[in-house]
Structures are given as C-alpha cells and as structure tokens.
Amino acid sequence: MGAHPKGDAQIKDNRIAQTTLGQWIAHFPACLGSKVKDTFHGQLPFLFKVLSVNTALSIQAHPNRDLAARLHAQFPEHYPDNNHKPEMAIALTRFQGLCGFRPVDEILGFLKAVPEFHALVGNEAAEELRCSVGDPVRTSQALKKCFTRMMNCEKKVFVDQLNMLVKRVTEEGAVGKDTSSSNGDLLLCLHSQYPGDIGCFSIYFLNHLVLDPGQAMFLGANEPHAYLYGDCIECMACSDNTVRAGLTPKYIDVNTLCDMLSYSPAPAASKLFPCVQDASDPCVSLYDPPVPDFTVMRIQVPASVKQYTLAPVDSASILLVIEGDATAASAAAHSDVTLRRGTVLFVSANESVSLLITSQTGLTMFRACCLL
Q1: What PROSITE patterns does the database record attribute to this sequence (predicted)?
Q2: Is 106 annotated to bind ligand?
C-alpha cells in the first residue's frame, strides 16, 4: 500500500480518473500536507504492508541513504532506488524474527557448544572475539571478522558442517536430549526450509525475537534481520533496497552486507520498540520511530463506542481495517464508504473521517502517516 513505482496502489473507485495512488498524488500534491510535500519532494514517503510469513524471509539489511545512492548508481538492477529503507514490524499474531547481533557472551557460548559453527568462524577470529570482551570497539571489529569469515566460507565446507550439525541435533533430539545449547529447534526449522543454506548458521549470531500481538521491532539502517514466522503490519520508507545474504533464492551480496552491518551486540529485549498512548485519544497507540518518514497508529475502538472520528493530521495517511465493520463519511468523499476487515483507505492531509461502527466487537485499524 503506497506509491512506489514498483508497486503503485490501485484506486478502486472508478469515479476517479486516476487509476493509481501515485498518479492521484501527482495531480493533487496538496493531499500530502505542506510539510510532507516539501520535505519529500511531492512523494508519499512510506510504504505500508501486511506480511504473512510462513517460511523465513531472507537474512538482510537495508542501506542508509549514502550507501543506497552508491548501490543504485552501480547496480540499479539489484537496488532499484536511491532511498534508505528503515522499517518497523508490528505483530498481528505471535511473530518470530531475528534482529541485531546477540550479546557477545551468547555468541561465545554457541562457539563453545556448537563445534560445527566454531569450524566456520575459525580459531583465530573466535579467540579475537573472546579477548575483546569489555572493549566495545575491539568487540565490534572482532564480531565483524567472525561474521565475515563465516559468510565467506567455501560452499562445500559450510554444507558439510551444516549436514553434520543437523544430523547431530536430530539424533540428540531423537533420544530426548535437550538441544537448546545448539538452538536445535530453530536450526532444524530453518534447515527444512533452506537446506544447505549458510543462513542457517546466522541463528548463532543474531537475536531470536518472539513478539506478542501489538509488540513491534524497529529496524534502522544496517541492522541485520530476518522475519521467520507469523503475521505482521510493516511500515517503511518508500524504498525497495535490500541487501541479502542467506535464507533466500534471490540475489545475494555477501561483501556489501558484511561491510555495511552495524556490529553492535545487544540483548533481544532491547530490540523491542515500545508504543505510547496518544495523549489526546485513548483509542490510539502510537509507534513513532526515530526517522521522519513514517509513524504508525493502532486505533482500537471498543465495542461500547458506536461513533468515532478519525482525527485529521497534517499528512496523507493510509488506513487499514484489521477487525470490525463501519461506515465512513468525510467531506472529501463522493459517498459513504463501507469498511470491513481488509479495507484500505487513503486519507488526505487535514481531513477528518466520521465512522459509524456497525460491528458488535468494536473496530481495530492501523494508520500509517508522516508526523513531521
């Protein structure tokens, strides 16, 4: 949902001459709001998605603006625009992902407990990491060396080690042994989806996050991550730039990924992104990341409320209905619009929308906008 040239949203109302959202915004740029229009040069600055992840999505990171411009200039077929792509995932169901480097003691623990992993990293790099503890600069350099060594292993070497590891964990599990010191369950799950993929070993470097519905993670530039399982709402800057390195059949760019990553170890809990209650509306929770491109609101109208006004904001917004039914009216609309699960509305800047809620269970919606 958005106006990226590779996936410009279709307008379903056939009374409107423009057929895509991008065309409509180009005709009526004031709909963005004056600050958004000027800051983002007449473009809608965000993309809004619903993801239903049944098999893991690649280990990846997104470039900052400088790197995005360089990659786009050099390899436009792989990096289709020159924008950065910070993104946020908000869980709709229980949602699993990998995000950011684990604390060093956890990585060292896996190097000790998983000889197949240690073999790929090598003695020298593993020892450097062990000796760097307590010195953040040295730790970051040593972590980069360890990760790069593993990612650049010869295919035959890592496939052999992976097969040995999977065989060992499977056999241990079969006799009732606890395989958690090898992260056994997650390893076997990823290996069943991507057999022989180097990305299976990334679970020893990256935090494994499990989000409950409503919890979020924010992924800034150069943050390694992968979505593993579950449904989420995702919002991001308007870009399609992704540097991938594993768990994917798509183009892999290991050298760029290893160079660009943020090698900052931190506990899994620090990767959760908190939402805050909107001071002016008890129905609204705000997910406001540290980038200007987007903010997401979760709007939960209780069953006891039958009329609700979507407050105007000084930004175009996209509204997605998750649960419930309502009729929407606004001064700008040709006629009332029926809202149900899955309905998507584009709301112009400074436009308020009156909702008459018809479902007995209330109404849950997500709204993406740009609050400068």
Answers
A1: PMI_I_1, PMI_I_2
A2: no
For the question of residue 244 being annotated catalytic, the response is yes
Q: Is 87 annotated as a binding residue?
A: yes
User: Has domain 103-204 been given CATH number 1.10.441.10?
Assistant: yes
pLDDT at residue 68 tops 90: yes
276-369 domain in CATH 3.40.50.300?
no
Check 130, 138, 244, 340 and give the catalytic one.
244
> What pLDDT, on a 0 to 100 scale, did the predictor assign at position 16?
87
Tell whether the model's pLDDT for residue 13 goes beyond 90: no
Q: Which residue has the tokens 């990846």?
A: 60
Please state the pTM of the whole predicted model. Answer: 0.96
Nearest CA among 63, 53, 110 for reference residue 84: 63
DSSP state of 271: G
* Residues 323-361 pLDDT 10s: 999 999 998 888 999 999 999 999 999 999 999 999 999
pLDDT, tens digit, for every residue of 155-190? Answer: 999 999 999 999 999 999 999 999 999 999 999 999
- Give the Cα separation of 179 and 190 in Å (integer): 15
Residue 284 backbone dihedrals phi, psi, to 5 degrees: -110, 125
Q: From CA 115, how far away is CA 117, in angstroms rounded?
A: 5
The torsion of the CA quartet 342, 236, 345, 91, rounded to 10 degrees, works out to: 30
Residue 154 annotated as part of some ligand binding site: no
DSSP secondary structure of 207-256: EEEEEPTT-EEEE-TT--EEEEEEEEEEEEES----EEEES-SS---HHH
Q: Structural domain boundaries of the chain?
A: 103-204, 276-369
